[in-house]
Every structure is written in structure tokens, then in C-alpha cells.
Design goal:
Length: 274
Amino acid sequence: MTINSDTALTISNTNPKTVTNDRIVIGNNVNASLTFNGVNISAPTDQSAIYVPSGSSLKITLADDSTNSTIGGNGSTGSAAPAIRLPDGATLTIEGTGTLNVTGGSSTGNPGGTGIGGYLYYAGPSPTAESCGTVIILSGTVTVTGGSYSAGIGGATNHAGTGGNGGTVVILSSSVTVTGGSSAVAIGGGNSSGSSRGNDGQGIKPTGDGTYTVRPRGKGGKPQSRSTAPAGRSPAGRQPSPGARFAPNSAPGHKPKNNQQKENATWKTGKKKK
């Protein structure tokens, strides 16, 4: 299914319990708005369940009481595909009250796909790892899982070169779980065969105790904790604007006060403890 207009649409499987391999592709320079009400997609080999090209955007509204699932295609001879392919220059916004499960594809002997983010593709003799676009999760229950060696949300892992960059990730919902594959970050840059891992990008997310974790742009930048209203609400009770809380490409405007909670955990990784 290709979406070539900005007209709002509702997407549902005929039987939400039955998986389909029909993909959702957003057209070039389209700002799509889709309500998911029982979507269940497992993408074909080497394909993503949803593809938002650079220059386009997709807003997903999760319908009340709905459960939705997207799984990236497994890799045939190389890396697997992301569940939601979102390269640099594309934007994904998720909101609503339903549930969305996002899982990167798997590949035997090669990296799996990101849950949301870049794809490792061949445009010549060497593979190119895409960087991640902008991800904004305002509400809903969302679980994102990266494939082996790949970020949950972020740049593609490159087994033969530099990994993709992490992009901008803004999470204002406290009901979001993001997990990277083995030896990969949950949110951030893609791995590489050497030391050329992509930078971890920038973003904010709630810590669950009324504060937000802010990550300045940079490679592995240590997040800072800001005291604020409960996640999802501004001090005056208004829905916060992502741009008001986090200015992309810049560090926070002030240092945390001494009595603020010190950040005791960076973005969760999928790396197992020995």
C-alpha cells in the first residue's frame, strides 16, 4: 500500500490476529496521517513493514484499545530490514491510546534490523548505513526492539564500515520501552566492525519519576536530568511542545541543580551482563 496524499486514513487488518505481508510505503514529500486500528504486518524478506522516505512524514494514531504490530523482513544474504524504515530527513510521530509493538528483522550471520531507523543498503560495492530521522512518541503504549547488533531506535549497523547516526528522538510518553539487540544501544548510533560507530544523536525521554533525561547531540553524550512536571504535561497543564523542551543540535540551556536527581542510567542497552 502506497500513501500518496495527506488525507487522513484508518488502516486495519481484516482480521487483526492474522498477519499480512502487505507493506505501507509513504510517497515522496507526503505528510501522511494514519490511524492504526488492528494493524499486523510482518514484512517480506529484505523489506520494511513501513517505509517513510527522506522528506516525508508519518503520524500514527493508535486507536483506543487497539493492538498493532510491525515486524521487519528477515535478511536474505545481508542485514535484515527495520520494522519502520526512517532515514535521516524523515519524521515519525506516534500518539493515541492503543498499543504498538515494533520489531526489527533478523538475519543469520548478519546484523538484524533496527526497530525504527536506518537501513543497511548497497548502492555500490560497499554497504551504506542510513542514519535515523526524527522520532516523536507523544502517547500510547509502544514497545520497540532492535534485531541482533542493532539499535531499537537509531542508525543502521554496518558490519563493513561506519554505522548510521542516531538522529533525534523525543519521547514524552512514560509507556515506552526501547531495547537494542545484543551489544547494541537501545537508542543511538549503529554499530560497526571497528570503532566507527555512528553518533548517538540527541533527544529527551521521561525517567518515570517526574523528570526528563536530556541527551545533547554527540557520540555517547551523557544525558542530563531536568526537573519538570510529570511526563506528558507542562507545568501549566498544557501538552508540551517538543521544540520547547528540546532544541535539536544544542545542549540543554542550564546545568542541573545540586538537589536534582543525578542521572544514574543512560539510555538502556541490550548488552547482557557477564
